[in-house]
Automatic annotation (TrEMBL):
This is Terminase large subunit. One of its GO terms (molecular function) is endonuclease activity. It comes from Paracoccus suum. Coiled coil: none annotated. Residues 258-538 form the Terminase large subunit-like endonuclease domain. Residues 64-223 form the Terminase large subunit-like ATPase domain. It comes from the Bacteria.
Amino acid sequence: MPVWSTACPDWERRIVNREGLIPFAPLFQSEADYALGVFKSLRVPDLPGKPTFGEVSAPWVFEFVSAIFGANDPETGNQLISEFFLCISKKNTKSTIAAAIMLTALIIGWREDEELLILAPTVEVAGNSYKPAAAMVRADEELADLLHVQDHVRTITHRVTKSSLKVVAADTDTVGGKKSGRILIDELWIFGKRPSADAMLREATGGLVSRPEGFVIYLTTQADAPPAGVFKDKLDYARDVRDGRIEDKRFLPVIYEYPQKMLDREAYLEPANFYVTNPNMGRSVSQDWLEREMGKELAKDASTRATFFAKHLNVEIGMNLRANRWPGADFWARRERPMDLGEVLDRSEVVVVGVDGGGLDDLFGLAVLGRDRETKDWLAWCHAWCHDGVLDRRRAIAPRLRDFEREGSLTIVDDELADISAIVEIVGEVKARGLLAAVAADPAGLGELIDALAAIGVTPEDGQVIGAPQGYAMMNAIKTAERKLANGTLWHDGSALMAWAVGNIKIEPTATAIRATKANAGDAKIDPAMALFDAVTVMSRNPEAQKAPEYQMLVIG
């Protein structure tokens, strides 16, 4: 048995030096050579003269193809590496390569009546894979005799084995019941936007259970929004395998992205570095075109650049690419210090609880902001709740909300009072420890919360429930938070929920003030971040804790 690892811990050095990102030779060289010979003989129909892949492809393409087919044990038929993940910039012939890989698999496959599958998220994406595959067959007389092309059902059938390659659009075609052993999933980032994508992909790949020679290939560019859903799950897993944090010899990640040091200094803006995420530079990707388009983007408003960076430079969209972003977003990631609620309370001498929430269509945000008794730094732990109806009303962000639920930073409830009950329980714990200065909330959202807090002795009359100023009156809290982040005296728990909420904040200035609002109406939730600002309005006054009587007696005793 061959010995190998799919981890590539030196990928940063490799990618900058234009070296391959697959850290091992094909497991079975003879299998790789056979398949690569077929792949190289296929013609690229949309290039002048219809050259073969062998004549025009870059070395990284041959390495990827060899890794796929070279992982099949010729003695047992088992596919020793069964999952492949390729994330690469747009226009690096991803869909054309996908078509050629699956056509190669159809040509050399030994199983009869097998269905090979290319699963695309939309009809348009399906066409991007099917059309070049069909054109490859028609461009070669020998292939045209061997394979039968049926455009109306996007299917190519092997006349001898009766196996077929079918291209399916997930938005129109039925995926259920497929028993494909070799599957390619194109544009995974689009699937990441769909609430039902995980179940759909499980159904589509179910045939692998009884196909030991099977494999699944995920192809994608970066998303036009922060990664979510199945795309985020797979991207995170691929990075962990690549970096050696997870050992999975059956999963091979190939990710063309900038090393963190280059991202930190925005090296992707330098044309000399475009090659890092565009290994087909000089072939299917034009350096001159990228430079011209970059110039256009830099001349426009910053809010339009994120998609260009994501698609053509494979830069993951984060929270700080908009011109009207909250300035604190630039420092948010630097002040991450993983900590749970218990740690915040253990370290704090005083705590302010910030609360912000709308109706059943919004999140109910909570921020527990403590002042460290030793350093006097501010420590923030945040959480949010939403009612399950939001998943239906806001389907565009449903996969993202499920991500936060798995992270533990969001609780999805089906009881109208479950969120308030949970908030009151947390406030009760803070009070019982003798740490509570106040609960600061949007006055428009106090209602039921005031009644619930009164049951534990936290009331406006006692000065423990405060209506935090909103709109332009919140400017001081917003500015204070961003200054504290900039000088390193405000730390947070590092949740993806808060990174998302902070990234959704849009700052609207006037001649004399600013206010924080949503970058996009409806789906861009900012409630947890607003809860933090509510807490800052009180913490910035240097409050003292209102000791609970039982806590005082405990100390005296």
